[in-house]
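TODO from last week: model Gamma-glutamylcyclotransferase b.
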Amino acid sequence: PCTNGCKSVNMENNRTFLYFAYGSNLLKERLQLKNPSATVHCVATLKDYKLVFGNHKGLASDRWHGGVATIEHSPGDEVWGVVWRMNMSDLKSLDSQENVTLGAYSPVELSVKTKGQELNCRTYIMNSCVYAPPSPQYLQVSSHCPKKLIFRLIGDSKLSVGQSASVASSGFHIQRA
């Protein structure tokens, strides 16, 4: 049994999928605007990746007016996020939200860890990322203090994290302290 707030994995005959969010989609209200089936599955970490901020091809986001979150491979680092369970019917909407057809992000399947299990999840990685600082409004949503914010944003104080690793802001990415 998982003591990290995650529920048992049953993909309901392939009618649902798991999505690992690490940026603005940590905010339940934002994600559910266009993806109403999204429900919190658990909190998880993505090992050997780091969170960075930037813009696709250096083009600033019209929505956020600054850099937005993406992940990049970085041995020894980790990214905290939320695993959402979503209906397959929301997949096209999620891809659209992440600007997949415009080439801004590519969907990938990665393995994330929770206390007691690994889960294969869909997530997104920015293409042609040019590093840029995030705007204050983006940081209000996705924050550079992920674990505490994750619990606050999903509004479930019953979830707990197996171990507490401190994080510190370092430039435009998060590194383990």
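Done. The mean pLDDT is 78.
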